[in-house]
Amino acid sequence: MSDITVPRLNNNDASYVLLEWLFEDGQDVPQGAVVAMVETAKAVEEIVAESSGIMRQERKQGDECAPGDVLGRLLDPAQAGGTGASGTSGGAGEDAAAAPPGESPAVQDPETLRGLTITEPAAAFMARHGIPAGGLATLGKSVITRADVEQLAAAPAEEDGKVVDIGRHQQAVASTVERSMREIPQAFALMKIRGSALADQRKAVRLETGLIVSALEVLVLVTGRLAADFPMIHARRIDDRHVALADDMHVGITIDSGNGLYIPVVRSVAHKSLGEVAAEIEEFRKKSLTGDFRARDLTGAHLSVSVANYADLSCSVPFVQPGQTCMLSLCGTQYETDPADGSRVPFFHVGLSYDHRVVNGRLAARYLKSAKALLESPESLAGICRAAEQTVPHQTEESRDDG
After folding, report:
1. Where do the domains of the chain lie?
2. CATH assignment of 185-399?
3. Could you read off the pLDDT of 337-369 as tens digits, one per residue?
């Protein structure tokens, strides 16, 4: 017999949701088969059988589960008789399987709790603090843990307006933000960049290749060009004395199409063309409409870019992602009058939030000045934008900026 356990799928979520079983109880499961789908706050992942056997499900579709939890078991044929989940009676054994590790289910009152299972630590906390059982049904869970009860106790007793659930996705964003603010002492620098050369280069690329790009795709390539000269910008802090230097350059970009914030990762940007980067970002935008991301799409970045290129937005201060040292922000295009000839000149701002334990202000300023030099130089931009043959992805109006 072997257990089907939940692996740790990312560093942000404390729990996941069992989305779907792909084998029924009693079915023969071959080794290496995908047996279940588990949903994190931002992606759907496959659970693979590490051995063969007869399926016995221990958790139901829709259940929350944590890393290390047992979802089911693969039994030897000799053990399989009469042990499937469909043959259980719904008694204490089933409740024990449904309870999180370390929290045994307490005796429940079916009339009061309407089938809810309260773990012993949760029941003890309720008794100690005088928390009534009537509010447990509002949690929307079948197994109530101590953490659930603590959340209920911390909630305001009354609200003047409508109370809504922000959802698992935004809860994961909140958890990441809280961790970043708690663990990383952050500073910020902002650089003003003239946009004339970039606008000219984007127009030239569009006329020659049909490729429509924004400042974002070019900025991603610029980070790749600067990676070798500024290794500390995309290092990972290990402890007070050590950092790990990356041997490649993977860049995360923020995307929010109205269905939640995602930060998918463009890999090996120092070795890609403008067309390749544009195609990947466009594919990520499509995935953001449905949330159809895999864990690989959202992990592994050495540096991230917060995309805030809205018209007239002058400054955006991003938070450094846990596990990274810096995060760039790209703001919207604005215009000013050139006093020399009265012409209308575009400009935009690029910001850099940085972990002050690793990067000092001088290095942050040098990095931004180097990015500015590349983004304002027609010669440098031509080399960056035409380094390799371009591919032309299909783009929607929503995916283009207004610069």
Report:
1. 2-88, 185-399
2. 3.30.559.10
3. 988 888 999 999 999 999 999 999 999 999 999
* In the block, residue with structure tokens 């009061």: 112
Cα 23 to Cα 369: distance, rounded to the nearest angstrom: 57
Helix H or strand E encompassing 308: strand 303-308
CA angle 10, 21, 38 (to 5 degrees): 10
**Measured CA angle at 351 (ends 346, 355), to 5 deg:** 170
Q: Give CA–CA dist 390/201, Å, rounded.
A: 14
Instruction: Choose among 109, 28, 98: nearest CA to 70.
Output: 98
* Residue-wise pLDDT tens digits, 253-273: 999 988 889 999 999 999 999
Residue with tokens 């469909």, as numbered in its chain: 86
Residue 77 contacts residue 51 (beta carbons within 8 Å): no
Q: State the Cα–Cα distance between residues 84 and 155, nearest whole angstrom.
A: 40
Could you tell me if 305 and 220 are in contact, meaning their C-beta atoms sit under 8 angstroms apart?
yes
Residue 172 neighbours by CB distance under 10 Å: 19
The Cα-based distances of 10 to 56, 70, 176, 292, 326 in angstroms read 26, 18, 11, 16, 20
**CATH 2.40.50.100 is right for the domain spanning 2-88:** yes
Question: What pTM did the predictor assign?
Answer: 0.66
Express each pLDDT in 148-191 by its tens digit.
887 777 766 555 667 888 888 888 888 899 999 999 999 999 99
